[in-house]
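User: Hi! I'm working on a homework problem where we have to compare a predicted structure to a textbook description. Could you give me the structure for the chain below?
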Amino acid sequence: MPLRLPPLATLRIFEAAARHKSFKVAAAELGLTPSAVSHGIDTLEKWLEARLFERSGRAIDLTPIGRQYLPYVAEGLSMIGVGTERIISGPDRRRVAVSVAPTFAAEWLVPRLGRFTARYPEISVSIDTSHRQALFPLDGVDLAIRMGKGPWPGTTSHLLLREVLYPVGSESYVNALKRPDGTLDWSGVTLLHVSSVEHDWPTWLAGACLECPQPRGHLYFDTVHMATSAAAQGLGLAIGRDPLVSATIASGRLVRAVQCAVDIETGYWLAAPAGEETRREIRAFQRWVLAEAGVEAA
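Assistant: Happy to help. Predicted structure tokens:
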């Protein structure tokens, strides 16, 4: 059964007038006259057989029905606009917007990004590191690198890298904790915790089959980056998370406190809106990220 849709032009007029609470301002935005906006609202109200605005002189306000209707219209127009943007390609559309967790962006993606820009100098990349999960397609994000168990409904998701956990610290801190037989004196350890993650010290201890140590102390942080930075400065041991700490270990700022590593079920996934991608720029970035992750895994 086909959907019953009012004239689409009247929906644009309604959304603009509701957003600005002014027929005059909506008219200026849409390139219409105020009388044309008023006529468009009248047409939509007659089609719906419901009043959307209360008019008092030059002032307007949404009726309860208008307030109920507005989110549906606004979201629908937004989806049409974003969908249109995603299939338009040209010199001014050679941009890929990627939503990435801040630590993954800083420790894994950005250090490799130069290889992408060298290969595709004509493509611009926009990195969004806000903590909120991007909503396809409303947020204007083309791709997202998400950490979790994946895949997610409504997306095409590819697993990039699984997380691997092991304790890390500065070389001097770890050496000071080692007994003559090479084992770690846990009574002298300050454990650095990350309060915002699901898997931390309890997960590693369980996977390593170790009794919970009685450490010297505890410090708590809200991000993985802060905890590993504190570990690199000799404040204690943190749970290192491959692939996030591999570069820091390679640089010598961190070392593995013990060799036991625990694989967990979460990982980093490349997610995109479901459906076949048509823009060359997005397909190029997808192929590049998957290739980089393949090299890392190998």
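For your comparison, note the following. The first helix runs from residue 8 to 20. The longest strand covers residues 155-169. Good luck with the assignment!
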